[in-house]
Amino acid sequence: MAATASQQADRSSAERNSAVSEMPDELRADVRMLGESLGRVIAEDGGPDLLSDVERLRKAVIAARRREVSVDEVAAMVAAWPIERSVQIARAFTCYFHLVNLAEEHYRIRILRSRDTGDSTVPDSLAQAVAELKHDLGDEELSRLIADLEYRPVLTAHPTEARRRAVATAIQRVSAQLAEYNAPDRGAQERQEARRRLLEEIDLLWRTAQLRHTKLDPLDEVRTAMSAFDETLFRTVPRVYRALDTALAGGSGTREPRARAFIRYGSWIGGDRDGNPNVTARVTREAVLIQADHVLTALENAATRIGRALTVAATYGPPGQDLAGLLAQAADDHPELASELATRAPGEPHRQWLLFVAARIAATRRRDLDLAYRSPEELLRDLRACQASLVAGGAARQAYGELQHLIWQVETFGFHLAELEVRQHSQVHATALEEVRAGKTSERTEEVLATIRMIAWIQERFGPRACHRYVVSFTRSSEDIAAVYELAEHALGARAPVLDVVPLFESGEDLANSADVLTGMLALPAVQRRLAEGGRRLEVMLGYSDSAKELGPAAATLKLYDAQAELAAWALANDVRLTLFHGRGGALGRGGGPANRAVLAQAPGSVAGRFKVTEQGEVIFARYGHPAIALRHIEQVTNAVLLASTPSVEARTGDAAARYRLLAERVASASERAYRSLTEAPGFPEWFGLVSPLEEIGSLRLGSRPARRGLGAPKSLDDLRAIPWVFAWAQTRVNLPGWYGLGSGLLAATRTADDSGTAERPQAGPDERPEIGPGIEELRRAYREWPLFASLLDNAEMSLAKTDRQIAARYLALGGRQDFADQVLAEYDLTRELVLAVTGHSRLLESRRVLSRAVQLRDPYVDALSHLQLRALSSLRSPDDLPDDERERLETLLLLTVNGVAAGLQNTG
């Protein structure tokens, strides 16, 4: 297939030229201005020669894309620079990507705002979902669906955010100045000052170290996640509810809302101890206290702000009898505070009351028990008393405006912000139980018992809602669930905390056996008790990362769907209200991709108005870094949850799945065989460690969790966690976890199946095109009619588009196993050809112009960093001994390029 690679290079050049010409003027202007500003900063700091070298490499990689120079010439240029110069150039391209990402984010925000004209319903919005459901279901059924609606995003600390927090903060400051610079109605002097400040912030970004000097601990990760809450989530959530309330009925803000608080954030940060010895009971306690401090501070500030503004005079809005009684009681219990507030707000009883509420929230944060609230429910009673009084006094707009937002925020976040979940490996529990029964406990077992006691402490302090889910990874049987309940009895006896033990099914075998495990769980007295107390609610978690690493992307996707369908049927048969918890990563190789499309592709009955999903690493800041983008993301997902729960969508999805069942089995079977033939081949783990920066990624100090299970180089994929597996492949520009095996699966499905329902891949020479059978038409129909299959191919297409064959080949050559390299590249060529054949596209991402443009424009600049990385990696992989100082400088160069490539590709793990 040598001709295929040449043709791909020609197409790539043409596609990039097209992408450049299609760039919107506003985006082009921002990218050019930011790029010029960075160039000016680089020249000021490193001199014109540094900027000249950056420009030489930039022009060379673009010329290589056009086939005007060879990649060997680019590599020679890079090799001629001293390592220190290469480090500076890598910093330049990394900063450039941070700025380009920022420009694209600002353009996206402008587009979102421009579409919201009010003249028509915005696609994928809550308004669009409500309008469609009113038409299809009627008001009564819509109300029922809204009443059951749940969306539970769970923030995790998986180390996929490659940027330092200091770098992220510097980027936020650049973002603020870019918004100021582009603000309309600015005078010339104001614009000049905004440009000066923008240059100042870009200069600071350039001078901020890209690499962490110390490893993150779990509490660092907690504090990092809190920035998303402080900056975005707290303010965005009530806007979501307001949008839903407006869509449900007119007059929002003047009547009792029909929208209820349906979002509940969760967190594994500080609670996930599976494979992370740094997460202890003490860390879990501190994580909850940090969360509580942030949410109570936010609630106090909101109550103070609203209270100060609530200058409703008693003459024009007299207090109701209940509120008057509460004010009198406050004066009796806290005379000094009540007197102070009466002096500050004379004749304004509602203002006095809300400021008193704010003082009580502050006391709750300080642990001043004389004034503190004992629970969020007590705070809600006080807020609703104020609301009812305003309504009775004729001030409905004041009752259902900002005050309603505060009520929604308390209902959503409570005093704990996010429901902290604990996770531990089933084998740890099994060992701990053996030791406890024997009466001789190790340090690790004592930590397990301490964790359970800490859950009890959290529940006593913040209520059971704050921490009651205990996730058991690698659940193999109901005994793994029973072990946690028995350990809880050993830890605290009758004072054991409320626990909902959640099985996590990750491997292909465990997914297949999941329904049987749940049947065994129903026989456990502790589970029976929790079902009775919780309205027969049960939660099950499905692991996308490890299943994809074990089976390959195609087989894992299809087996996860089958597991969901079986679990939904099991829940119906056993009268259980099942919530499936989707453990999806940010990258395509770990179940990532557009969340709303993933929801609409779920098995019938598996959503039922409830969707819970992990939000990992860089995804947290990509989705929640700006209020406009956060609002759009939450609306899109909720829109999909509502639509996926309707009989019409469930029937359409179910019919398509049944119609293409045999086809899916052929694709899954052949793709898994192809994937395993590579990943289980002798010597593959060692080869992977040579061709990728896998070993060095651990030095990035991305998170508190170790990159692999055990010590030393991985001997099999089981030793390697899914995140570094995906991250390392992205760095090589191969993106193998997102597509490998799919081509073989599609090819098998085009051919006549044998009696076993599978078809072997025909053998073809290196320059031969595989013979595509008549089954291609059925694959095309499946792509058009089955959302799951379409999502699988579209995600693979995105992953293929981020793969660069020429650069990838240079990485693969580092391992000294040409057979592996040839196997990977042949599967890439096959997958690319079959995906295009099935989708009907003439080029990758043809139907997704915005994404295609972003990839095409970035590729040459990512190439520059890849060449710099290859220079460092090839030297580090050389059999020759390197002096310690040279090795250290090469590792620094390598890690800087890892940061840059992650920023350029906009995903890591």
TrEMBL record:
The active site is at H158, K549. It catalyses: oxaloacetate + phosphate = phosphoenolpyruvate + hydrogencarbonate. Residues 1-20 have a biased composition (Polar residues). Pfam families: PEPcase (PF00311). Signal peptide: none annotated. GO terms for cellular component: cytosol. It is an enzyme of class 4 (lyase). It comes from the Bacteria. GO terms for molecular function: magnesium ion binding; phosphoenolpyruvate carboxylase activity. InterPro entries: PEP_COase (IPR021135), PEP_COase_bac/pln-type (IPR022805), PEP_COase_Lys_AS (IPR018129), Pyrv/PenolPyrv_kinase-like_dom (IPR015813). Residues 1-22, 751-773 are annotated as: Disordered. Its EC number is 4.1.1.31. GO terms for biological process: carbon fixation; oxaloacetate metabolic process; tricarboxylic acid cycle. Its cofactor is Mg(2+). Keywords: Carbon dioxide fixation, Lyase, Magnesium, Pyruvate. Homotetramer. Belongs to the PEPCase type 1 family. HAMAP family: PEPcase_type1. Forms oxaloacetate, a four-carbon dicarboxylic acid source for the tricarboxylic acid cycle. This is Phosphoenolpyruvate carboxylase. It comes from Sphaerisporangium siamense.
